[in-house]
Amino acid sequence: MEEEEGVETLKAGAGLGIRHYVLGQRISMEEDVAHEFKGHRSISIHDIQNICFNLNQAGARTRNAISITIGAMLNSGQGGTIYLGVTDSGIVKGITLTRYQQDHVEASLEWTLGKFTPPVPDSRYSVAFVPVISSKSHTLSAVTSEHVDNIRRNQPHHVAQPYSCWCDVDAEAQQSLGKLPVVYVVEIHVRPWEPHNIKVPKNPLSTRVPLLPPMHLTETNCFYFRQSCRQTRLCLEDIRRLLVHRVQEHCTLKLDALQQQFKMLQDLAEKHGIQLPLQTEENSH
Questions:
Q1: Quick one: average pLDDT of 268-276?
Q2: How far is it, in rounded angstroms, from Cα 69 to Cα 112?
Q3: What sign for the dihedral angle of Cα 260, 261, 262, 264?
Q4: pLDDT for 129-149, tens place per residue?
Q5: Residue 3 falls inside a structural domain
Q6: CB-CB contact of 42 with 48 (8 Å)
Q7: Residue 107 near residue 158, CB atoms below 8 Å
Q8: Following DSSP, what letter does each residue of 57-116 receive, concatenated?
Q9: Domain-located, residue 6
Q10: 187 & 260 share domain
Q11: CB 181, CB 131: distance < 8 Å
Q12: Helix-helix angle 99-114:166-176, to 10 degrees
């Protein structure tokens, strides 16, 4: 993608002790299978306000829940990062968030991913709030100067509903008093499927074949798969074919590993003078 005139490629953290974005600059990557840009923070479909529904088309929406992209990245197995506060063209706009609203985003993520089938463990994702500054000479003092009431912070947040939570009302009240919240880019990191990190009972006879990645339905019981820079909703037949393909790959790897293990046993037996039964066409399968 070519640089726009007057817009520099983003270099987070340059010259400052904290990683940051610069308002109005273009980030250094494009939307692809591992990167997605969003201009809102509606995690679940239940967070989307009625104003975002297109009245000319029944059920159509002008924005999609972030859970769709998370589910698609989980099901692809490759993971990825979703950037909230970045336009489709990669320009940093940011989202204003108080500390209470950041807690709301984390609570919404936890609730939504807990409603997936199967639920998504917290080891598969993380969230980071990266501040946005207005220029490279701007300081980040506002990030550390915000007053936070820990007692109020423990209040439950109203997630999965299209109405304002108490933290949003509080943010509006602070703005009316002239206290502007810090602008952030919210990075939701979906970790790739790493089966070797999954704890399973040790079996000396088991072959080292990666476990099959889980397939997740979103909170609306829909299945999405990440392809290129978009997520495709799969029907039951598509899911069946995907499962068959993955099982075939898994069984092929398993068979190869078993054959290698059998060859090692043959070599070991020959070394010690042990005669093994001959492998016939019938028992080789």
A1: 79
A2: 12
A3: positive
A4: 999 988 755 555 555 567 888
A5: no
A6: yes
A7: no
A8: STT-BSS--HHHHHHHHHHHSS-EEEEETB-TTSBB--EEE-HHHHHHHHHHHHHHHHTS
A9: no
A10: no
A11: no
A12: 160
Q: Show Cβ contacts of residue 213 under 8 Å, excluding neighbours closer than 6 positions.
A: 75, 77, 193, 195, 246
What radius of gyration, in Å, describes the C-alpha atoms of the chain?
A: 25
DSSP state of 92: B
pLDDT band for 55, please (50, 70, 90 cuts): very low
Look at the chain and report how many structural domains it folds into: 2
Residue 11 resides in a domain = no
Tokens coding 80:
């990825």
Q: Are residues 140 and 242 in the same domain?
A: no
Residues 114 and 178 in one domain: yes
Alpha carbon of 66 to those of 37, 41, 137, 143, 178: distances in Å?
Answer: 10, 7, 33, 25, 31
**Which letter does DSSP use for residue 276 in this model?**
P
Q: Which of 118, 120, 126, 129 is nearest to 80 (CA)?
A: 126
Q: Which two tokens stand for residue 259?
A: 């054959």
State which residues form the domain around 244: 236-275
* pTM for this prediction: 0.76
At 261, the amino acid letter reads Q
182 within 8 A of 97, measured Cβ to Cβ: yes
- Using alpha carbons, list the distances in angstroms from residue 72 to 40, 137, 233: 18, 39, 9
Q: What is the DSSP letter of 91?
A: B
The one-letter amino acid at 269: A
Whether residues 219 and 269 fall in one domain: no
Largest CA distance in the chain: 88
